[in-house]
Amino acid sequence: MRRTFLAPAAAAATLMLAIPASAAEPTPGAPGVGDPYYPDYGNGGYDVAHYDLRLRYQPRNDRLKGTATLLVKATQDLSRFNLDFALDVREVRVNGRVADVAATGAHELEVTPDRPLTNGQRATVVVRYAGTPSEVEVNGFTSWHRTPDGGVAANEPEAAWWWFPSNDHPTDKATYDVSVAVPDGTQAVSNGVLASQRSEAGWTRWNWRSTEPQATYLATLAVGKFDLTTDTTAGGLPVLNAYSRELGPHEGAARASIERTGEVTEWLEGYFGAYPFHAIGGYVPDTDTGYALETQTRPFYSPRKFQHGSNVSVVVHEMAHQWYGNSVSLERWSDIWLNEGFASYAEWMWSEHAGEGTVEELAAYAYDSVPADDDFWTVKPGDPGPENQFHGAVYNRGAMALQALRTEIGDRDFFAVLKGWQRKHAGGDASIDEFVAYTERKSGEQLDALFGTWLFQPSKPAVGPNGGAGG
Ligand code: ARG
Ligand code: ZN
Predict the structure, then answer these.
(1) Ligand 1 atom 3: the closest Cα is on which residue?
(2) Is the whole-model pTM more than 0.90?
């Protein structure tokens, strides 16, 4: 959903009237959007406005099956198009008619409708599928983490392939309805608001709704035995957290951290502007993966994040991503600094707020504690390469880069940039180049050299982030 779109009822009416109008032959949509790091991720020729996922999951044998209905709009005259997906497909229909479908790679489906789509035409794509996600490996890995009581889809950038067919690139955001039936006594957790839930014949169906544009890798599904807590923030946001019932000794620390999500979010609003979505929360499944992920409105937290006790810092990090990464998405995966640098900087700000060390102290320490001959300094936060997308340099040197910017332009312009950038691109996507240009406009300063040094120089900057030779 990159531009405006009609409501589904209007879309259906448009379809019936659509007549191929152009003289040129329709052509196949590209199998990728041409991302510099992942050229075959996403697809050309159409945009998705909405995903409706109606699924059933059996934890006993890790069996996921159901139907995905995608409301799409063609952006060219289209003879065929690709979807990104790794499970087995039973049938695809485009506008109600059975389409030809072929798996052309481990995560690519090629769909040929029986009639071409015309540029601007809205279409309904229905995909019926089934699979055992934990058994499906692509390039030697799976992003579906099996747990003793179910499973969870959470990874970056590849997460959707294991549970729904999509146009898998952050530049094509959409709204979602995720409806998942699981055996009674088990919970299914996803993004947004729990719209309803209903039990019938031994199965409980959980209906989740996300009404703001969401990138595919930020959609999540967790099935397992969870304890759900609900609340409302002082500002009126609905909070829903979910804790696996098997967290053992990590349970207290997880709750002591995640139950502060509302407080953290309202504190972040003071610096970043109004929270961009209409629900918040977090969830902790019974998984031994080590990371956290900013899945939209409801981050995924590995229990290991709480192994040393409470960790509000990780909550601050994942909630900061709701502004930087989720509302303002990456234009290309090489722009990852716009996500991780900002979320890491927010952790330093929280530390100062909590009285655990000022931003200046933490930036100085981050700079001083890594010697110039360390490989750390060879990774360019502004273009780390796909193999280093989540390297510590993207996070820590990325945060130092923001501190260097603040030192240069001063607090007033720096905080105006943080808020203004968010306001300008909310619900869309943007690049590092645009950020540099925006910062220069706001501050009236020439900042190419500063960003060149901090984001693109493959060695330790001679001057520290606070403007001195040390630190
Ligand atoms: N964006 C996530 C975070 O910083 C990082 C996810 C890393 N992904 C992974 N598979 N390790 O919170
Ligand atoms: Zn992050």
Answers:
(1) 293
(2) yes
